[in-house]
Amino acid sequence: MGAIFLRLWSNDAVTHLTNPDGVDVVVIGGGVVGCAVAEALSRRSLSVFLLESERGLGLRGSSRNSGVVHSGLYYPPASLKAGSCVDGNQRLYAWCEQAGVAFRKTGKLVLARTVEELPHLQRLFDNAQASGAPGLSLVDGAAIARLEPQVHGLCALHCEQSGIVDAVGFTRSLASAAASRGAHVVVGARVLGAAPVGGDHLLDTTLGPLRAARIVNAGGFGAPAIAGFFGVHHWRHWACRGDYFRLRSSAAYRRLVYPVKVPGDPGLGIHLTLGLDGSARLGPDARYVDDADDVTPAEHLRSTFAAAASRLLGPVAAEDLIYDGCGVRSKLAGPGAADVDFVLHEEPAGVIHLVGIESPGLTASLSLAADVSQRV
């Protein structure tokens, strides 16, 4: 192999990347899914490069989410979302135990607060059971009060396997494991184009050319554009922003608390999530936006969040909330359209695309990576 000059995620800077002899696999995208794929591939006798366009790993969607480990409640039973979430939930907890990544299996309550919401909750329970989600039960108002004394509802879906994880720590632990087995993790390497060459693929990057026999496109919001470099133009990502507000007092909440999902809502409704530090925050909401890079604080949403919190938890005043950032989902379904499944697609031969990997992508990452590894 020719001279290689790398910017590893942990240390050295690099100005140029050359590799005339080629490598086995290049993974494009250093979010949680790309790092999981690189880790899975590093277990095999393959030369692996992970390229991330940002100056660090997991700086976009992987670090701008609620860090929730999902159980697999919301997705059609035969879908890739459902299967990879249920399988990934178990894989993620096992990985974090082994790698020393901080997590907590908190459990979750999905509340029906009115009689009108009860049928929606029953349908959610039935769907989750059909998907194979473990540790589920329907509990009444008295049980809700025992589980979460400050929360009230007529009925709730209790999900024992839901939890929270240090999403950035998880992402970086995967990259570290891949690097320890010889994978090259390169940040600041944006892919600008691609061309076929002798049965391989030649990538044009900001650090120079890189030739590979196989490509995995895990480019997050940019995955459809990366697919276009290989002549594949099937997909468009819509930017769906979600903001967060932190409660000044976390009180004594011990579990995640969600409303029943409203049909047609692009998100799950503003809900209560917990931090590993004991903090509590509300969000995200879900709003389609034109600019995926605009993360300007949305302080104007304070009253909206306070009203949503009051419906879910009881009285919450606007002054009880502190703005706590935002993230942008990469959705394949545009405004008004029904949610669609994750895409895991090979085209042309030797190029695998992971597209539309929004929530529950964090939970599903290790399961998706195992699937990709089998296909490479």
What string gives the helices and strands in order? Answer: EHEEHEEHEHEEHEEEEHEEEEEHEEEH
Derived from helix and strand composition plus strand pairing, the structural class reads alpha+beta
Helix fraction by DSSP (H/I, runs of at least 4)? 25-40%
CATH superfamily of the largest domain: FAD/NAD(P)-binding domain
Shape: elongated
The second-level CATH architecture of the largest domain is 3-Layer(bba) Sandwich
Question: What is the CATH class name of the largest domain?
Answer: Alpha Beta
Model regions low in confidence, pLDDT < 50 over at least 5 residues: 1-15
CATH fold-level label of the largest domain: FAD/NAD(P)-binding domain
What is the strand tally?
Answer: 20
Mean pLDDT: 93
**Number of H- or I-type helical stretches:** 8
Strand content: 25-35%
How large is the radius of gyration? Answer: 21 Å
| End-to-end gap | 21 Å
Largest beta-sheet details? 8 strands, mixed
- Write down the domain tally: 2
